[in-house]
Amino acid sequence: MDDKMSKSIKIDFNKPVMTGNELDYIRKAFENSHISGDGFFSKATQKLLEEQLGVPKVLLTTSCTHALEMAALLLDIKPDDEVIVPSFTFVSTVNAFVLRGARPVFIDIRPDTLNLDEKLLPEKITPKSRAIVPVHYAGVGCQMDAIIAFAKKYDLAVVEDNAHGLFGKFQGQYLGTFGCMATQSFHETKNITCGEGGALLINNPQVIERAEIIREKGTNRSRFFRGMVDKYTWVDLGSSYLPSDILAAVLLAQLEARAEIQKNRKQVWEYYAQRLQSWASKNQVQLPFVPEDCEQTYHMFYMILPSLATRQALMEKLRENGIISVFHYLPLHLSEMGKKFGGQAGDCPVTETVSDRLLRLPLYNSLKPELQDLVIDTILQFSP
Ligand SMILES: *Cc1c(COP(=O)(O)O)cnc(C)c1O
């Protein structure tokens, strides 16, 4: 970026923030002389997540993408299996299963929460269906009661892509604890981050041992270290999905500061909601909807403008004022790959229109009200 341009940007869309002991813990990881995977900080981080969420096993991974790949391996997804996925999501939600040869069956979203529309599930089921992958968009829970009941009836696995939803709840229960497995992301753009990272939450204890093997290059290294086997050898499919303990050190520091991080994000989110509400209703702009039985994570503040043209115009106006706002997912069923699986315009009408009209505002935990006022005042001067 040249100097002129960087000076003209006043408000970034996202900014990774160090909240607590990140640097101290990195130093300690070196002092421990263990900076590869599964060291002190990895174990402490996994334990913190297991205890806080009440999950039988948490395994840190190098990304949410890799946690999803592990889930697909653990479910023994085979060529021609079908996996029901929202079209309105990040490509990894789908790619992880397609890598095993599965066929994605794209499902539309609800117009209110932008989560997978559970009422459409019966239209998507076939004898080849194997799994459903709900994404808790913006950290607002999907209707997990309906989704789990449907999955039980047809014997489908549920893997929650909970990249946005760490510590969110649906009907009082933590997101990520409903499906047989769930995946987290600690990418720079997420609420809690170590740059690049993820986790697999395992709610079905029967797959824990195999998960450890898959994550350790297909070897029984974990059992060997626990003294449960006397040889360390190749026993299954696998890859290298363990993050360095340096990254886990950063993660532990961030997770220990989770209350403060979430409190700050909540403040930013609520300030947007409060100041933009009347402008939004006057101008037919849709703001995020959080059902009463959901506790959200304040991951994202989005607005849905009346049209693509007005979305683009507002984005441009914000940019002229040095404010970076961004759109979000392009419908996966209309992507180059999606079309190869038969995706056609009109398959997921809500996804298609929302994708054109959605705009996300800057939101990070150190965003000061003075800067937020600049964003809000620029929006209030705009009439779509
Ligand atoms: C960020 C994100 C991912 C991918 O996370 P990585 O850790 O970057 O692999 C997957 N799914 C959703 C919904 C995401 O937002």
The number of helical segments is 15
Helix and strand sequence: HHHEHEHEHEHEEEEEHHHHEEHHHEH
CATH topology of the largest domain, by name, is Aspartate Aminotransferase, domain 2
On the 0-100 scale, what is the average pLDDT? 96
- Structural class, by secondary structure, is alpha/beta
N- to C-terminal separation? Answer: 31 Å
Query: What is the CATH top level name of the largest domain?
Result: Alpha Beta
Name the CATH architecture of the largest domain: 3-Layer(aba) Sandwich
> What is the tally of beta strands?
12
Largest sheet: 7 strands, mixed
The CATH homologous superfamily of the largest domain: Type I PLP-dependent aspartate aminotransferase-like (Major domain)
| Low-pLDDT runs | 1-6
Bound molecules: pyridoxal-5'-phosphate
Helical residue percent? Answer: 25-40%
Strand content: 5-15%
Strand order within the widest sheet?
1-9-8-5-4-2-3
Alpha carbon gyration radius:
21 Å
Shape: globular
Structurally, how many domains make up the residues? 2
Describe the structure.
- The protein has 384 residues and is an alpha/beta fold.
- It is 40% helix and 12% strand.
- It has 15 helices and 12 strands.
- The strands form 3 sheets. A 7-stranded mixed sheet has the order 1-9-8-5-4-2-3, sandwiched between helices.
- Helix 3 runs parallel beside helix 10.
